[in-house]
Amino acid sequence: MTKSYTYRIIIEPDGDSYHGYVPALRGCHTSGSSIAEVQELIKDAMSVYLESLIEDKLPIPNDNSLESFQTISLSFPLSYA
Which H or E run contains 43? Predict the structure, then answer.
């Protein structure tokens, strides 16, 4: 019997490369030269991370986070910019 887990990943530009991480899996990070590379590498990182939890008989975290995307416009005085 198997159980599937779904996790949110974040990929952000980091200079000339990209940084990817899984907020629900503290310390599960990777980087690569393209978004596609980070997407593949983060899958590997997640697999190793979860396998180590299973080997150590530790609980596997659920991703219970709320995700919200919105555009917020704020105005500041020109002297602040």
Answer: helix 35-55
pTM over 0.90: no
Residues in the chain: 81
Helix (H) or strand (E) holding 17: strand 17-21
Position 45 pLDDT exceeds 80: yes
Domain annotation for the chain: domains and CATH numbers: 10-60 (3.30.160.250)
Per-residue confidence band for 80, with pLDDT thresholds at 50, 70 and 90: low
Residue indicated by tokens 């555009």: 71
| Residue environment code for 25-36, b if the CB has 16+ CB neighbours within 10 A, otherwise e | beebbbbbeeee
d(CA 31, CA 16): 11
**What is the C-alpha to C-alpha distance for residues 17 and 15, in angstroms, rounded to an integer?**
6
